C-alpha cells in the first residue's frame, strides 16, 4: 500500500463521509484494543461501526490502512501530554524527574491498549511500515527529555562530557519497557498509586544515573511518600 493510496482513501468529500470515517476510526480503536492487531478483522470494525464492508473500503484500503489512521490520532495525542500535578509538589531537580516520569506512566496507562497494539504491529517481519510509525511515536517523549537534560547541562548540573542525547534515549527506553511490562501487559490497569510509585522509583533511578550514587538522598514530602 503506497502513501498515495493511503492519502486518497483518507479523503472524505462529504459531511456524511467524514462522520463515517470518524466512526470507523473509533471502531478500529475498539477492535484493535479488544482483539489485538493480528486477530482484529475488517468484519469486526464494520460491525462495531454499524457500516457495511463496502462502506469500509470506501474509506480505507485494508486493516493496515485503518491502523495507520488510528495510530496517527494517538501519535498526535502523545505530542501534547498533560502534566501530572502531584499534591505537595516542590520544585527541584529530583521532584522534576519524578514529575516527568509519573506523567509518562499516566499517559501510557490512558492509551495502553493501542500502545500495546502498536508494539505488536511494529514487530511484524519486513517490509513493515508500522516500524517507522512506532519509532516516530517515541520521538516527542525522548526529545522533551533531551532538551530538558541539555538545559541541566548548560546550567552545570550535568557534566559537559556526557552525551545527553544518548542518556535521554537510554533512560527513556528503560521506562518504555517498564511501562510495557507493568502497564501494557497486565490484565488490569494499574491504580493511580501504582502509577505514582512507578514514577517515584524511576525518578530516583534517573536522579542516581545523572548525578551519581554518592549524591545525597533526595527528601520526599509526606504527600509524595503517601502517593498523593
Provide the descriptors you would attach to this structure in a database record:
single chain, 228 residues, mainly alpha, Arc Repressor Mutant, subunit A, Tetracycline Repressor, domain 2, 72% helix, elongated, disordered N terminus
Question: What do you see in this structure?
Answer:
The protein is mainly α and 228 residues long. The chain has two domains: 3-69, Arc Repressor Mutant, subunit A; 81-225, Tetracycline Repressor, domain 2. 72% of the residues lie in helices and 0% in strands. The chain has helices at residues 3-10, 15-39, 42-49, 53-59, 63-79, 93-110, 112-122, 129-154, 164-184, 192-211, 222-225.
Topology:
Blueprint: H1 3-10, H2 15-39, H3 42-49, H4 53-59, H5 63-79, H6 93-110, H7 112-122, H8 129-154, H9 164-184, H10 192-211, H11 222-225
Helix pairs in contact: 2-3, 2-5, 2-7, 5-8, 6-9, 6-10, 7-8, 8-9
What's the rounded overall pLDDT mean? 80
Percentage of residues in DSSP E strands: under 5%
Flag low-confidence runs: 1-8, 82-90, 217-228
Distance between the termini: 48 Å
Helix content: over 70%
Structural class: mainly alpha
CATH class of the largest domain: Mainly Alpha
Give, in order, the helices and strands.
HHHHHHHHHHH
The outline comes out as elongated
What count of domains describes the coordinates?
Answer: 2
**From the coordinates shown, what is the CATH architecture of the largest domain?**
Orthogonal Bundle
Oligomer: single chain
User: What is the third-level CATH name, the topology of the largest domain?
Assistant: Tetracycline Repressor, domain 2
Evaluate the radius of gyration.
21 Å
Query: What is the tally of helical segments?
Result: 11
CATH superfamily of the largest domain: Tetracycline Repressor, domain 2
How many E strands? 0
Largest sheet: none
